[in-house]
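Preliminary data (for renewal application), carboxymethyl coenzyme *A complex.
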Amino acid sequence: MQSKGNATLTWGDGQSIDLPIYGATIGPDVIDIRNLGKTGMFTYDPGFLATASCQSRITFIDGDVGLLYYRGYPIEQLAEHCDFLEVCYLLLNGELPTPTQRAEFQTNVTHHTMVHDQMLSFFKGFRRDAHPMAVMVGVVGALSAFYHDSLDITDPAHRAISANRLIAKVPTIAAMCYRYNTGLPFMYPRNDMSYAENFLYMMFATPCETYVSNPVLVRAFDRILTLHADHEQNASTSTVRLAGSSGANPFACIAAGIAALWGPAHGGANEAVLKMLAEIGDVSNVPKFIARAKDKNDSFRLMGFGHRVYKNMDPRAEVMRRTCHEVLTELGLHDDPLFKLAIELERIALEDPYFIEKKLYPNVDFYSGIVLRALGIPTSMFTAVFAMGRTVGWISQWTEMISDPEYKIGRPRQSYQGAVKRDVVPMAKRG
Ligand code: CMC
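Predicted structure:
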């Protein structure tokens, strides 16, 4: 990192420390506080509002302007000109592939799309009504029990094989979760199809009929994956890095990421959007729910609005909004009551002073939930789809961390506010 002088921190009776400042290629400078701990002081930053946990070359976000770059390329251009596997190659390797590299990567990934046959029996251990994310956490974690030959995290070749395996197998596992839920037979992956088309095939094909895919819907699904592929140090990615910092294997780390993604404030938001739309029920109820979202004494929030980093329009939401209209037009769904309701909610919230002042714009999950529903993906599968897209981001960030000579086990400190030392009173004397 480029040195940009020092910041001096002073406290107490004239104690002080010089802390180096480092520049970034774009974005804010950082103050290196690693030596602060030696003075006996720590910084306090729950929620990491002002803490860079690592240096990274993968994704750049400027939330004030509304920019998102993967390896320097604006997300809008990637969504327009590249398919998801090209984006995966870019995130993993730092450059867009040549046609030969693209073909080779596709072969490597498709070579791994099936899961070990013994994994099929795992599913029987779950209740049929288990949430797909509950099953995903377990089954993705269990991959480490099957692929022992790629678990040496110090070996770059092992890391690359694990990356390909995860990118290839997570969609297969996600589709299996849905098929198990619905009692439909598992469909084996089709390696003659594109990544997105194969997933829709594993979700919706049956062994007794020919499956015909719709290119508009396949493209829309591919875009959802691209838009979710990485988002720098968000909660699930930080979880993957933290789990990985102890030396845990990549399958276990990605399972940890899936667990963190599940929450409604993160990857569960697109599912929460659809539940909220169902709860609102009718366009006439929108003002009532907007009023509830603004009421400090009501915990209700408009799901799919607001973002920790974007205080301007989320650039992914802009792409997803266009895709959403393409899909609704293709399927003739513009008059569907739920979609009408979503569009009305978006209109009212964008004009409301509360949302304008607090810079609460629709985020990517607002539109991706609507597109996924139009594609026939059940609400309970939405976060699993997010996990499919994000797997490449997680594994790219994990690989970057393992290759970083400065990486250390992640071990935050705390400000202890509990009881001071006291002595145990024996049970007979308590009460
Ligand atoms: N509806 C109503 N009010 C909101 C909303 C919302 N969706 N989001 C934030 N606010 C208000 C909040 O009450 C607070 O008001 P005040 O300043 O009066 O206390 C102010 O805006 C700032 O909110 P915050 O919770 O301090 O902001 P945050 O950065 O901690 O939270 C968020 C970001 C995404 C968790 C939050 O906006 C939210 O809960 N949104 C709804 C859930 C959602 O859509 N999540 C998906 C995020 S995008 C997916 C991803 O990238 O993972």
